[in-house]
Here is the input.
Amino acid sequence: MLASCVMSGATTSRGRRLRVAVVGAGPAGYYTTDFLLRQRAVLDLSIEVDLFERLPSPHGLVRSGVAPDHQSIKKVTKAFDRIASDPRTRYFGNVTVGTDLTHAELMQHYDQVVYTTGAATDRKLGVEGEELAGSHAATAFVGWYNGHPDFTSERVDLSTPRAVVVGLGNVAMDVARVLIQMPASLASTDITDYALEALSKSQVREVVLLGRRGPAEAAFSPREIQDIDELEGVELTIDQPESTLALDATSFSGDARKNVEFLQSVALRTQREAPRRVRLRFLSSPVALEGTGQVERIKLERNRLVERQGRVSAAGTGEYELMKTGLVLRSIGYFGSALPGVPFDTTLGVICNDRGRVTATPGGAIIPRLYVAGWIKRGPVGLIGTNKTDAKETVDHMLADVESGPRHNASPAEVITKLLNDRGVRVVSYADWRHLDELEVAAGIQRGKVREKFWSVASMLQALDARAPVAADG
Ligand code: NAP
Here is the structure.
C-alpha cells in the first residue's frame, strides 16, 4: 500500500526518492539507517541517508561508553561499518547540528529528519558538595578512560584508598571494575594510554558501591555483578549482610531473584583476604559531600524501603554516617540534551515524541517529517541491541507517514555538501574515519593493545591532513 507514494516528490528509476537525515552516529543512528535501507525490497522507494555526527569518529557509546574490558561487545562496529559502507549512506563526521547546520536547514533540505543523539550528560544528585574536586559524574569518568574528546581533560585523582560509586546500574559496575581490577588486565584493551598510566599508579584499593534501595531493587544485571566477583585479586563483600540474608529470594523473579540468590551466597561465605575489595552497601543515600576544596568525606543517610503506588522506594531514616573518601563517582543515570529548535521534555530528558514521531509538547501534536530514536527517544535505558527494536518502531512510522504525511521535495544531495563547504566546515567522511581507524589499530599493535585511540578532535583532523587526499564521500 505504501508503494502508492510514488506519486509524490522527486522520482527515480526505483520510484520515489526519500532523503533522510539521521543525526547521531551511535547504535540508534546506525540501526535507524539500516532499517531504512532495508526497505528497498518492500517499497518502491529509493532511500538515501545522510548520517551526521558531531565528532569525527562514529559509533557513539560503543566507542566511548562500553568498558575497555568488554571488547566482545564492540564487535558490533563491524555491522555498523557495513551499514555506513552502503552507497546510499553518506557520513558527515565533525558536523554539529545546531551550529554547522541548523535544525531548520535539515527540515528544509531533507524529506525526513531523525534525531538519534543519545543522552550525553549526567543526572544530578542534588546534594551539597556535588561540585567539589574529586566528585565526578560516572559519564565523565567513562568518557575519560575511553578517550572521548569532551572528557580527556577531566582531572581524575586516584590517590585515595577508597572510592565511592553512587548507584547500582551497569554503568556503576563498569566504573567499579575499571577502578578496582589489576591495571595489567586492561593493558591490551583499547583503554587510552593516559588512563592506563593513571590506573597503574592508582592508590584505590576499595570501591564502595552505594545503592539507595535493597538487593532486590539493584539495577545491575546478574552477569555484571558476578563479573566483579570473578576479578582476580578482588574480594566482593556486602555491608550488613544480615539484611540481604533476611530476604526470601523466591518472592522475586527474573534478574531480581538471580541477584538476590547470588548476593545471599556472597553474604553467607567467609570473607577471603584480597589486596582489593568491592563493598556493596544497600539502603544508603548520599546527602552531602564534604571537604575543603576537595571531597574528603561522604555523608550517608540510612534508608528503609517503603511501597508507594506499587513501587518500592527508599525513605530516609534520619540516621547518618560519615565515610572517608577522596573520590566519588555519581553513576545515577544519563540525561539527554536539548537541541535548538527541537521540542524537549526537560523532566525526562528526551525529545518529546509519540513512539518515535516528534511532538510539539509532551503528549502534544505530531510535527510532520520529524522523528527520534534511541536514548533521546525513550530515555537512557537498555542495552545496545534494545536500539534495534526501538529504531524499527521509528522507521515503521516514518515509512507509514511517507504515504499519508505532507509532501516535501528534498534538495539534491550536493546541496548539503556545498553548504558545509561554503561554511568552511571540515567534514570527515567514512573513508576518512576508516583511515583514522587503521591508524588507531596500528598504534595499538605497537603498544600490544587492541587500538590506541585519538582522543582529541584536533589530533584526528591533523592525522587526516597529513595523509594524501581521498574521495570526498566514504
Ligand atoms: P540505571 O540502570 O538506570 O541505574 C541507575 C542507578 O542509579 C540505579 O541503581 C538507581 O537507583 C540509582 N539512582 C538514581 N538516582 C539516584 C539518586 N538520586 N541517589 C542514589 N541512587 C540513584 O543507569 P546506568 O547504570 O547509567 O545504565 C544505563 C543503561 O545502560 C542501563 O539500561 C544499563 O543496563 C545499560 N548499560 C549496560 C551495560 C552492560 O550491559 N554491560 C553497561 C553499561 C550500561 P534506583 O534503582 O533506586 O532508581
Remarks:
- The CA atoms of residues 141 and 154 lie 8 Å apart.
